[in-house]
Specification:
CATH topology of the largest domain: Nucleotidyltransferase, domain 5
CATH superfamily of the largest domain: ATPase, nucleotide binding domain
Strand order of the largest sheet: 3-2-1-4-8
CATH class of the largest domain: Alpha Beta
Number of helices: 11
Largest sheet: 5 strands, mixed
Distance between the termini: 24 Å
Number of domains: 2
Radius of gyration: 20 Å
Oligomer: single chain
Helix content: 40-55%
Strand content: 15-25%
Length: 327
C-alpha cells in the first residue's frame, strides 16, 4: 500500500511573472488540488527569484499534503524569449534576465523534472486543453496584460516557429509612427492596447489637464491604478476612460482581424488582466471591429471569445506541459 501512495501522479504548473509567482498542483486529469502565490522580487536577481519559485512549488505541494515523491514534473511559463528545448530563458526584460538556465537551476533546487516554455504559449496550451478540450485544430490566443503576448495552435499542436519565437502578436505594427514600444519599434499592438500603454496614456493626459474620476478615486498621481479601476470609472459615467478603452478595444479588433486573415483559425481566445477586468466593456467592440477588418467571407464560423480561466491559464498550461513531457 505504501508504494502505491508514492506513485508519481501529480503535476505542478507555475506561472512566473514580473510581479508574482503562482504555483498550482494538479491531478493528471488537470483538476486543481491547491495553489500557492508569492511576489517575484526580480531585484534579487535570477538566483533569488529561482529560490522563490522553489519555495512557491514546495508550499503548493505541502498545501495539498503531498510530497515531491508523488510529483511527475513541473511545467513553468516564463515571460520573454525562451528556448523550450534547453529550458533556458534567453531574454526576459520584465525580470532583467539574460541567458538564465531556469530548467537546470530549478531542477537542482527541487529535484524534479522541470519544463520551461514562454508564458503566453503556456496560457494558450492551458486554454486549449481545458476550455476548448482540444477540439479546434487551429487556435490563436491573445493576452492583454502589462504587455501583449500570444500563442498559436496549428494542426492541434503548439506552433513555436523557426526561431521558437512565433506568437509575438504584441509586436505587430498596428499604427505606423505610433507610440514607442518597449521593443524599440513604434506603433506595436502592445504600445497602443496593453495595460502599460493604457495607464501611460491616462497618466500623461491627466498631467496635461484631462479630467477623470480616476483622480478622485486614486489621487492626482494615479498611484496603484489597476485594470478594475478603469471598469469602475466607466460605470461611474467617465466618458474619457470609456473612450480610452474603446480605442484599445478597436486596436485589439484590428489585431484579431489581421490574425484571422493570415492564419484563419477556428477560434480566437482573448485573455489577460485587461480582458478579465473589462470583458463587458471591450468584447463587443473587438468583435465589431474584427468583422469590419477581416477579408470578406472569411469570418464565417470563426469564434472569438474571452477566456474564463483568468489567472489560472498559466498554471493549468504549466501542468499540461509537464503532463506532455513526462508521458
Amino acid at each position: 500500500m505504501a508504494e502505491s501512495s508514492e506513485k508519481k501522479e501529480y503535476l505542478v504548473g507555475v506561472d512566473l511573472g514580473g510581479t508574482k509567482i503562482l504555483s498550482g498542483v494538479f491531478k493528471s486529469s488537470l483538476a486543481c488540488l491547491g495553489r500557492s502565490k508569492m511576489s517575484t522580487k526580480p531585484q534579487r536577481g535570477a538566483k533569488g527569484v529561482i529560490e522563490r519559485i522553489a519555495h512557491c512549488v514546495e508550499d503548493a505541494v505541502d498545501e495539498c499534503d503531498l510530497t515531491f515523491k508523488q510529483v511527475r514534473g513541473v511545467g513553468i511559463g516564463a515571460p520573454g524569449a525562451v528556448d523550450s528545448d534547453s529550458g533556458k530563458v534567453i531574454f526576459a526584460p520584465n525580470l532583467g534576465w539574460e541567458d538564465v538556465d531556469l530548467k537546470k537551476d530549478l531542477e537542482d533546487k527541487i529535484g524534479l523534472p522541470v519544463f520551461v516554455e514562454n508564458d503566453c504559449n503556456i496560457c494558450t496550451l492551458g486554454i486549449y486543453e481545458t476550455e476548448l478540450e482540444t477540439k479546434p485544430r487551429q487556435m490563436v490566443g491573445i493576452f492583454l496584460g502589462t504587455g501583449i503576448g500570444g500563442g498559436l495552435i496549428l494542426d492541434g499542436k503548439l506552433y513555436c516557429g523557426f526561431n521558437r519565437t512565433a506568437g509575438e502578436v504584441g509586436h505587430m505594427v498596428i499604427e505606423v509612427g505610433g507610440p514607442k514600444c518597449s521593443c524599440g519599434n513604434r506603433g506595436c499592438f502592445e504600445a497602443v492596447a496593453s495595460r502599460g500603454a493604457i495607464f501611460r496614456k491616462i497618466q500623461n493626459d491627466v498631467k496635461a489637464g484631462q479630467k477623470t474620476v480616476l483622480t478622485e478615486m486614486l489621487g492626482p498621481g494615479l498611484d496603484d491604478m489597476r485594470s478594475g479601476d478603469l471598469r469602475k470609472a466607466i460605470r461611474q459615467g467617465d466618458k474619457y476612460v470609456e473612450k480610452v478603452i474603446e480605442d484599445a478595444a478597436e486596436y485589439t479588433g484590428i489585431a484579431v482581424a489581421n490574425l484571422i486573415n493570415i492564419i484563419n483559425p477556428q477560434v480566437v481566445v482573448l485573455g489577460g488582466g485587461i480582458i478579465t477586468a473589462l470583458e463587458d466593456e471591450m468584447m463587443a467592440i473587438i468583435l465589431e471591429t474584427a468583422k469590419d477588418y477581416v477579408m470578406a467571407g472569411t469570418f464565417k464560423g470563426i469564434e472569438v471569445m474571452a477566456s474564463k480561466l483568468g489567472d489560472d491559464a498559466g498554471i493549468v498550461g504549466g501542468a499540461v506541459l509537464a503532463r506532455m513531457r513526462t508521458k
